[in-house]
Structure formats: C-alpha cells, structure tokens
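User: Second chain of the day. Same drill as before.
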Amino acid sequence: MTARAAGVFDDGSAERRALMNVLEDAESEKQRLSAAQRAIMNILEDFADEKRQLELGQRATLNLLEEIDTERARAEAALLELRQTVESLRKAKAAVEAANKELDAFSYSAAHDLRAPLRGIEGFSEALLEEYDDKLEEQGRVYLRHVQACARQMAELIEGLLTLSRLARGELQRAEVDLSELARNTLDRLQSEAPGRHVEIVVQDGISAIGDKRLLGAALDNLLGNAWKFTAKRAAGRVEFGARASDGVTAYFVRDNGVGFDMQYAGKLFGVFQRLHSAQEFEGTGIGLATVERIVRRHGGSVWAESAPDRGATFYFTLGEERSQ
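Assistant: Same format as last time:
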C-alpha cells in the first residue's frame, strides 16, 4: 500500500470514528431526553394526582360547609324553639304564681272571716247549755255538744288553713338553727301534756341546719306531734329524731314505732285535708303534713316517708342550702 493510499484509509477511519462518536453522543442525548421526558411525565402524573386530591378535598370541604350550614340552621331553629318554650314556661310559672297568690289570699280571707261566725255558734251553744240546761232533754244537750265539737273542729281547720296560708307570705329569715334543741323542746312539751305515757325519746345531738327557725320549728312540731299521736296505742312507744348523710346531702328524719300506713297511699300524705286514718281513730285536721311539705319546699328541699302497716313510720326531709354538723 502506498503512503497516499494509507493516508486516505486513515482519514476514512477517523471520519468513521468521529461519526460513531457523534452517533453515540446522539444516542446518549436521546436516552437523556427520554429519561427527562419520563421524569416530566411522572411529574405531570403526580400533578394530576394532586389535582384530583385537591378536587376531592374541595368537594369534601364544600359538602362540610353545606352540612355546617344545615346544622347551623337546625341549631338556630332549635334555639328559637327553646326560647319560645322557656318564654311559655315563664308565662305559665308567672300565671301559676299569681293563681297561688290569689288562692292564698282567698284562703286567708275566707278563713279569717269564718272565725267570727264559728265563735258565735260555739258561744251561743254554750249559753244554751248553761242557761237552759233544765229545760233541755238529754238528747237536746247531746245535740248541742255535737254542735260545739263540730265548731271547735272547724275552728282548728280554719286555724290550720291560716297557718298554711301564712307560710307563703314573707321572706325566709335564714340563720343557723339547732334542730336537736327544737326537737327536744317539742318532745318535752308533748311529754308534759301526757305525763302518763311511757315513750322512749331519742334525739341525736348536734344536728343543725341553715333555715328559718320559726318555720323549721313548725315542721318539727307537726312531724313529732304525728309520731307522738300515732304511737299512743303502743304500751311502749318510741319517737326518734336524727339525721344521716348520703351523697353529700343530709336527710333529717322523724321515726316512730306507731301504727304506720300502707305505702300505696303515700301519694296522699302531703295533700291538704288528706288523712290515712279516721278521725275516730286519731284526731287531727289533715293539714299538718301539708304544712310540713310547704315549709320544706320553701327551703328548697323535699320530704318523703317510708312505712308499713303496724310497723311504724319514718319521715325524711332535706333542706336546700343547708349546713349540718
């Protein structure tokens, strides 16, 4: 091979190598472009996913806002209904309070006005018995004594109604009250009025509460008086006053071993003129427990009873804003 031919050959090889390099570089660029394109496509797909997620989130937000609007509308409607109900209850309460005041005023007026005629009936009956005793037959004297007894019973009923009416008048004079002392005073008085009775008296020491002393004394007078009365047929009666605490609330009680009563009639206990025993068995007006219930209710408390026939009875009461020791 001549030198000139060798040179031509070498130049052709160089050109081929240069061309191959160019082709290799082009292939590499193509691969890089393909990789970049794939990366861009992946990015676009990611963007598309994000867009879908954003659209879903936007729809969920719009749904939530619609639900919030719906719930707000319901809440506003419920609030309006509640306000209307509260207003209706307020008006009903005001009407009931006004009616109760009118009823109390009427009871007080009627009871007060009835006392004078009753005193006249009893007085004239007594005058007849004293001044015309020799002119009356025995049956006539019996009738007059019945008239006097009925007049006295009516007077007691009227006095009970007046007492019950007074309980709704005036503000409570709240102070610390020694309930143990009030109970002892009442029981000492009852014992002195019936010295021949044998009654075991139990009064728990140190019981006090915040309340109106005069009213709480009246409540204890009625409860202890009932216990004393309904143990009268026991050879050995027992009357107890005490207190017990449960769930942070103090319940005061008066317990006896008297005749008791059937609990199916417990709902009648605290009504005016309600009696579970006849007047022939035990005297009374049927107002005492109604008086107790009103006094306890004015103190923000409640009163209830537990009993069984011939097994005695226990009356419990609580007092609002009370403090026991």
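The mean pLDDT is 81.

User: Great, on to the next one.
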